[in-house]
Amino acid sequence: MTKPWFLYMIECVDGSIYTGITVDVDARYAAHCQGTGARYTRSHPPLRLLGHETHPDRSSASKAEYRIKQLSAAEKQRYAATLQAG
């Protein structure tokens, strides 16, 4: 049985929203906070984890990530409100 993948969303200190995927949300968020997560969060430090959602595999998580990254900032905020709390 494969491990589930998670789509997660982070609010950055400048108000922007970062979206990513991982198999371990807590470890990935900690990496972002330490400045080792992603280039974007090194220049836009995380403020808080908005939440996450579970996907059965990497492919479906990646597709969801792509779909969300196409949304406007307001649409991302609304979507983040539907996620499971981080």
Automatic annotation (TrEMBL):
Q: Which PANTHER family match?
A: UPF0213 PROTEIN YHBQ
> Hey, which family's this protein in?
Belongs to the UPF0213 family.
- Which InterPro entries did the record assign? GIY-YIG_endonuc, GIY-YIG_endonuc_sf, UPF0213_domain
Instruction: Name the chain's protein.
Output: Excinuclease ABC, C subunit, N-terminal
Which organism is this entry from? Dechloromonas aromatica (strain RCB)
| Pfam families the record matches | GIY-YIG
Report domain GIY-YIG positions. 3-78
SUPFAM superfamilies named in the record:
GIY-YIG endonuclease (SSF82771)
